[in-house]
Amino acid sequence: MTKPYGQYCPVALATEILGERWTILVVMVLADGFGRFNEIQRALPRISASTLAQRLRSLQAAGVIERRPGEQGEKWHYYLTEAGAELGEIVYSIGTWGHRWGRDLATDDLDPEHLIWSMHMRMNLEIMPDGRTTIAFEFSDQPQNKRYFWIVVNDGVADACLKHPGFDEDVRVISKLQPFTDAWRGFSSLHDEVRSGRILVKGPSKLAKAFPDWLLLSMLAREERRRPGRERSLQSRTRKSD
Fold it and tell me: CATH second-level architecture of 10-101?
């Protein structure tokens, strides 16, 4: 928790809880329904284990979360309290503002691990083929240790894999990280990127053709970008061509 401001202002009191680096993002992950320590760390791959542990302790002390045995037999699980659930709605609004008005992404902001985690939560499971479907992702401009990822969908459950899951791939998606991130965020059209070959989809033609519809894209993909810059220009061009 940050140092008290010494003011009765409610914004100051809230900032004492939320002002530390990573805290709001931890609340975001918990609001998405992921409460195991390793799940939170996978959703936020650049946070260290020690920092995550500190943030969880601070949120617990503030009454935003509670720790108790998991419902599926896990040793410990973190849950939002009533205060935390209300805060989750506010965090989503902050995300909407950030999508509209935050700065354009720099190269250092691009994170394939976070992208894969986000995608596995937004799969259109209802139209996925029956049985198991393994999608391999290759981000061709990334270093070897951050180039290959997988999403496995089986029985209506999607899993994000940082290591080869041991199954034969049904589809392989090859792309540089920036264009795929732009399409995921709704600034460009995923279908157009695939048709142009900037995003290459390999596999049986039926599956390759269906792939763009398997992704629901970011929850904010339909929101209008309002800050002038590359992303707003890209989104404007895309919408004019639709």
Answer: Orthogonal Bundle (1.10)
**Residue whose C-alpha is closest to residue 173's, from 143, 210, 144:** 210
In angstroms, what CA-CA distances link 223 with 6, 21, 64, 88, 124? 38, 26, 29, 19, 19
Give CA–CA dist 231/182, Å, rounded. 8
pLDDT at res. 4: 83
Residue ranges of the chain whose pLDDT lies below 50: none
pLDDT at 108: 93
Work out the end-to-end distance of the chain between its first and last CA atoms, rounded to an integer number of angstroms. Answer: 47
Residue at token pair 């990280």? 177
Q: Look up residue 21 and give its two tokens.
A: 């680096």
Please check whether residue 220 is in contact with residue 185, taking contact to mean a CB–CB distance below 8 angstroms. Answer: yes
Which 3 state secondary structure label does DSSP give 32?
coil
Please answer whether residues 94 and 36 qualify as being in contact, where contact means their C-beta atoms are separated by less than 8 angstroms: no
What predicted TM-score, i.e. pTM, was given to this entire model? 0.90
Partners of 136 in beta bridges: 150, 172
Going from N- to C-terminal start, the domains of the chain cover 10-101, 107-241
pLDDT tens column, 106-159: 999 999 999 999 999 999 999 999 999 999 999 999 999 999 999 999 989 999
Q: Are 77 and 35 in contact (CB under 8 A)?
A: yes
The superfamily (CATH) of domain 107-241 is SCP2 sterol-binding domain (3.30.1050.10)
